[in-house]
Structure formats: C-alpha cells, structure tokens
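Final report, Chapter 2: Outcomes

The project's central promise was a pipeline that accepts a single protein chain and returns its three-dimensional structure in a standardized token representation, suitable for archiving and comparison. That pipeline is now operational. To close this chapter, we reproduce one record exactly as it appears in the project archive, with the input sequence first and the structure output second.
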Amino acid sequence: MNKRRIDKRRYIVSFVITLAIFSLGYFLGFVMENIRIDYFEEAYEKQELGFKSLQLQYQLAESNILKENCKGLKELFNTFVQDLEQQRSRLEAYSRETNINEEEFKVMKRKYTLSQINFWYIANLLKERCPEEGDFVTILYFYGDEKDCPRCEEQGIILDYFKLKLGNKLFTFALDSNFEEEPTIQLLMSTYNVSSLPGLVVDSKTYGFLTKEELGEILCSKIEDEEAMSKIC
C-alpha cells in the first residue's frame, strides 16, 4: 500500500516537473520570438531611414550641391547594403524556426523585400549619376520554390560564389516570385520580361538560368577593377 502511494507521488512529481519544464520552454520561446520580431522592426526602421537619407543625398546631387561627393555617396550606400545583408541572414534564420507567427513573418519579409528594391533602385541611380563610382554590377534574382524552379538552388549557389569573390563589386537582390503580398515583384518581372525561373536581371538585361561559366563571362565584361577581375576571369 505504501509502495503504491510512493509510486503515485513519484508520478505526480514527475508530471509536475515535466509540466514546469514544458511551460518554461514555451515561455522562453515566446520571449525569444518577440525579441526577434522587435529586432526586425528596429532593423527595418534603420533601413528605411537609410534609404530616405540616400534619396535625399541623390536629390542634392541632382541639384549639383553634392556634385563632387559621389565617392561619399557610394561609401554610404555600401554601408547600408551590408546592413541589408545582415538582415537577410537573420530573416533566413528566423524562417527556419518551428514556432513563428506566419502573419508577422510575412510583414517582416515584405519590409525586407521593399528594402531590397529600394537599394537596387538607388544603385542604378548611383551608376547613372556617378559613373566613376559605378564600377559594380547589380543583379535582380527572381526565384521560386523547388516545384516551380528546380534549378533555383543551384543558381543561388552560383550567385553566392561570385558575391564571395567580388564583394562590393556585385550586389544581388533576391526576390521571391511567389510572394504575392508584395505586388512590386510581379511589376518588375513584367517590366523586364521575366517569364521563367530562375530569372536574372543583370544591369537591366534579362537572362534565364546562368551557369557559373556564363555568369562569370558576363561579369568579366562589365567590371573594370583589375584586382576583382583577377579573382573570376
């Protein structure tokens, strides 16, 4: 009889401990999720301010007030793109988590997508307004899921390779073609006649899937910096 009571107490204690551990884990997960969301909100606000700053500086450059400061504009642009890359890495890490709020994630992804498009736009303005600072290539990369685009993963690896080699001589902006929450993606695909995936817009010229050799040849024809060219050509 006493043994049964002891066993019963053990079961109760085990249950209470298990429940406590589960509750603690759930609570910590909830707290960490809120921390991540707060981080992305803060990061996006910084990106938004950065983009507005770039717009203002470009407008000043257009009015010749900053005519001689193209180099400073390029350096500031590089800083913001690096921040955007860090935000991308954290967004990807967040998307792999099991417990995420789908709607909040979509909002964060849309903000990040708009940040990418904004910086791509600024990059083209910089190349046009400050050609001496425009020795870099921009790529809009339209991708889909494995069903829609079985070669997108391979294309992404190739783009990552050249980004690693070229650094700030290459700026790649990856846009999810299935992300219906942001209609600007479809507008850009229509504008550049992207009809298949993967789709690449390299300095305003549209391509389909590009092998490592094909993309390397294109980049070698566009980049003038000898040190950068020696790494891929």
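Archive annotation: The CA atoms of residues 198 and 209 lie 6 Å apart.
This record, like all others produced under the grant, will remain available to the consortium after the project formally closes.
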